[in-house]
Design goal:
Number of helices of chain A: 14
Strand content of chain A: under 5%
Largest sheet of chain B: none
CATH topology of the largest domain in chain B: Cytochrome Bc1 Complex, Chain D, domain 2
Helix content of chain B: 40-55%
CATH class of the largest domain in chain B: Mainly Alpha
Oligomer: heterodimer
CATH architecture of the largest domain in chain B: Orthogonal Bundle
Number of domains of chain B: 2
Distance between the termini of chain A: 59 Å
Largest interface: A-B, 31 and 34 residues
Strand order of the largest sheet of chain A: 1-2
Strand content of chain B: under 5%
Structural class of chain A: mainly alpha
Number of helices of chain B: 7
Helix content of chain A: 55-70%
């Protein structure tokens, strides 16, 4: 083993001391808390999604006449196809959950403050890309629900001021959902979005390493522990728990497909996937333009939160306004989600 | 938790993960064994334990390669939804084609397909699934093998008695 490592080291002349230093980067001791081990999980899930996604492309055909049949083929006929599709589907949903949990942790520990504002913005962009991934992936199934979710989802884009119409045309490849739409969504799903996500993950991790982990103001301890192997092991444990749960879930609840997409026949009850429930409920409560403006303001507020928080801190120091705002938004999201899930 | 304990935990969990994936593979093999055997083979196995003839084996292979199962269901039993199709809003099953078609009719159906699936409601939308024609993909011998296989799908013991 040592000979192999030496062989590689001779051919890749990187300063070994630098690598060792990077791997053993000292982390503040509060990172030992399991809540702080969620950052690596979305990255692990992204790798799983990439591998299973590549395997799915071997059999998936992105054309309206073959998409549904190819998904059925993967699910019911291809050896282990149901398993690969189930893992892909499950990992995408878990990725949304883990990114959200990571963001909630960062928010409530205020790890986004000066000089880490840009990294928070990268994080929000990664969350948005994760949601777009889920939306475009769901559309590719081309069964009734996914087809109509695509139609309604893209309809909402048209209501976005100024760029709505051209953006809608760009996504659909025409004024309505048509054969071009599926191939465009496929291109976004397997080309544009993975590239954007990879670049943003690299930038996100790079900034974390350059700034170091944000200190926890409520924890006065000054002790540190190394990233490798100590923190790495914790991240691996979290990742393995999630993977074992995912594999067993797919084993007992294999994926299925609904009725094939029928463009002329709108089903009686259309609902997006659970992660869009809060937005969907919000849009149901308001007019379309108010709903879209409200959603855009919410996303803009999320992006710019580090700067908003700094202003609030100046206006009302020590009032913990960030806790009030964060808790209100969190509760509102949960209420909207449950409301839509239960009442529909 | 000490570092050594964490290392052991990672090792054990890794084994559980590998075990779960192997169990999934086993489950998949069992499912495939159960579902992939055509009804004719099951029936003949129970009746006389006779294996499929070469002609039927070739027909089964073509049936699988063309993904007929995707629309006509495992073993040609049907059950796949096809909105507004005259055939009960489902893709028709194939296991009883022997009763409804002659051999030349079946050959014609496989070669030409059903480009315009008849609508249940004439004012409604066209059914999303329709039978494609395979005349450019199959030789006459292959079509004959496939027809022989489709006729063999007829469940044994369900003859009308004539």
């Amino acid at each position: 083993m040592k000979r192999v490592l030496r062989w590689i080291a001779e051919r890749v002349p990187v300063d070994q001391e630098l690598v060792r230093k990077a791997l053993r980067e000292p982390l503040p001791v509060h990172m030992k808390n399991w809540v702080f081990c969620l950052g690596g999980t979305p990255a692990l899930l992204f790798c799983i999604l990439a591998v299973t996604g590549i395997l799915l492309t071997f059999y998936y055909v992105p054309s309206p006449s073959h998409a549904y049949a190819s998904v059925s083929n993967i699910t019911f006929k291809v050896r282990m196809g149901w398993f690969i599709r189930g893992i892909h589907q499950g990992a995408s949903q878990l990725m949304i959950v883990t990114v959200l949990l990571h963001m909630i942790r960062v928010f409530f520990t205020r790890a986004y403050r000066n000089p880490r504002e840009l990294n928070w913005m990268f994080g929000v962009a990664l969350f948005m890309i994760t949601l777009t991934f889920a939306f475009t992936g769901y559309s590719l199934v081309y069964d009734q629900l996914s087809y109509w979710a695509t139609t309604i989802g893209t309809n909402m884009i048209a209501a976005v001021p100024v760029i709505g119409e051209p953006l809608l045309y760009l996504l659909r490849g025409g004024p309505d959902v048509n054969p071009n739409t599926l191939s465009r969504f496929y291109d976004f799903h397997i080309g544009v979005l993975p590239t954007m996500m990879t670049l943003l993950i690299v930038a996100h991790v790079l900034l974390v390493r350059l700034h170091g982990v944000a200190p926890l103001p409520s924890d006065p301890r000054r002790e540190t522990y190394p990233f490798f192997p100590d923190h790495m092991l914790r991240e691996m444990i979290v990742g393995l728990v999630i993977l074992i749960a995912l594999v067993n879930f797919v084993m007992f609840f294999p994926p299925t497909v609904g009725a094939p997409a029928t463009p002329g026949n709108t089903p009686g009850h259309i609902r997006p996937e659970w992660y869009f429930f809060p937005t969907y409920r919000w849009l149901k409560l308001t007019s379309l333009s108010v709903g879209i403006w409200g959603s855009m303001l919410f996303v803009a507020g999320l992006f710019l939160w580090p700067f908003i928080d700094a202003i609030l801190e100046k206006i009302a120091p020590r009032r913990h306004l960030w806790v009030i705002v964060g808790t209100s938004c969190f509760l509102m999201t949960i209420v909207f989600m449950l409301w839509e899930a239960i009442v529909g | 938790m000490s570092i050594n304990a964490q290392k052991y935990l990672v090792g054990i969990m890794g084994l559980i993960l590998v075990g779960s994936v192997i169990a999934t593979g086993y489950l998949d093999t069992q499912r495939r064994k159960k579902e992939n055997v055509p009804p004719s083979a099951k029936a003949s196995a129970s009746a006389s334990a006779a294996p499929l003839s070469r002609e039927l084996q070739r027909g089964l292979k073509i049936y699988q390669e063309l993904s007929c199962e995707t629309c006509h269901g495992p073993g040609g039993k049907g059950g796949v939804h096809n909105f507004n199709a005259q055939s009960g809003q489902e893709v028709p099953p194939l296991n009883k084609v022997a009763e409804g078609y002659t051999k030349p009719e079946l050959i014609e159906k496989i070669k030409v397909g059903v480009p315009d699936e008849p609508k249940l409601d004439p004012n409604g939308p066209a059914p999303p699934l329709h039978m494609p024609g395979f005349k450019d993909m199959l030789t006459d011998d292959q079509v004959n093998d496939l027809v022989a296989y489709l006729i063999s799908l007829k469940p044994k013991g369900e003859d009308s008695g004539f």
